[in-house]
Amino acid sequence: MRLRTLALAVVGAACGPAVPPSEPPAAPPTPAPIAATATPPASAATPSQPAPPADETLEQRAKRLHAEAIVVDTHNDIPTVLYASGIDLANPDKRPVHTDLAKMKAGGITAEFFSIYVDASYWEKPTSLGGGAARHALDLIDVTHRQIERHPDALVLATSAADIRAAKKDGKVAVLMGIEGGHAIENSLSALRSFHRLGVRYMTLTHTNTNDWADSAGFSGPPDARHKGLSSFGEDVVREMQRIGMLVDVSHVSDDTFWGVMREAKAPVIASHSSARALTDHRRNLADDMLVALAKNGGVAMINFWALLVDAKYAARAGRFFLAHRGELQKLRGKLHDDVFGFREALDRMKASEAEPFARPPLARLVDHIDHVAKVAGVDHVGLGSDFDGVDTLPEGIDGVDGLPKITEELVRRGRSDAEVLKILGGNFMRAFEGAEAYARASKTTLSGDGNARKLEAKDVPPPSKGAHAKGAPGPTPKGTGPKGAR
Ligand SMILES: [Zn+2]
To answer: Which class is domain 2-16+41-47+55-460?
Structure first.
């Protein structure tokens, strides 16, 4: 499944339909009272830092700031790699992973969101093949807990902003979990609440597939816009998530779904791994009017590092490659089905043998996206959502979690103030997370007893929209690249 999606997604990125036009709501999005009133200061600095030396060099300043910061990455697909390969974070056995214990230490990461990524195919998989969607989410949650329990000196489970701050103090990496793909709850608000109990603190409403209550942006081919955004049940999902303090994540959703979320949201919303559409014209990225709306909501756009989403030139090159080798790649995927690393290695060999170079974009391209969001939405509304271990190509100089300090250096080089750097590295996310927690607390309701018990009925699920893939709910929509498959 990964193999197919790897090829298709990259083709789709460069050669799929043009980015659909944004459809802003008739009325401007309602500003979220919680975001406006309950958000704590954005500074992520730990208190009582010594004053910096007067003759501090640029490199020294970057190093100091990175060590001082609460560094948060909101999207990392390592659980899928761990699940498929059986490797351990302490010993990746020389495998080409972006994430392991040593890299996390070297990267100075404070909080890493492990992605509980549920491929659309799990919607229909029989138990004997690892399905369904909720079951796969449970499997990846267990993989994550296993790693935390095996490495108590390095990792700690975190389910709140306070847990992240405590981990920083203790010198451990806070591991959080976010579900990728709203079909994981199998249309059950009870399942949503149970995932919260297990520690899940955000959920992308869709992956590349439209589900029974929210439209996806898709990836290649015509998107399935059967709900024209968020359905009535989808609105209930958003409300229930915010009531229980689970962040609503708009990465992967269609523009109409995004605007539906903005209308419903009363607490800050995040895009856990999306970049700026104005710089890389792709429907997985956020348009400027969406960035402005996210800022009004008090939310944060966490920038995706994937070369294909940050560099238009790379996306076009990758598109040509995958179109030219479509047949060959299909054969390869048949042969290396579920071999996370085997396919990656074969793909790298194919790319290396190309006459036309396959140049990684410079790190500057990634930081351009941070600057753009800061310019359009404000410096309080941008952060980092790498997509490590879910993508095949990262910008030059970033080969994994250990490359994060390079971003800090570039931010300093570009003249960002200390306070701005701390916000971008994690302070902004902390503010949004704490805002969502404050909203949930203010509801003064119990997790389950006061929970929404609505059941989604068949009559509420329209057929796929014309031209879209005719399969049922998530259907076999293409995924992305890399070991996991999709951005
Ligand atoms: Zn993704």
So the answer is: alpha beta
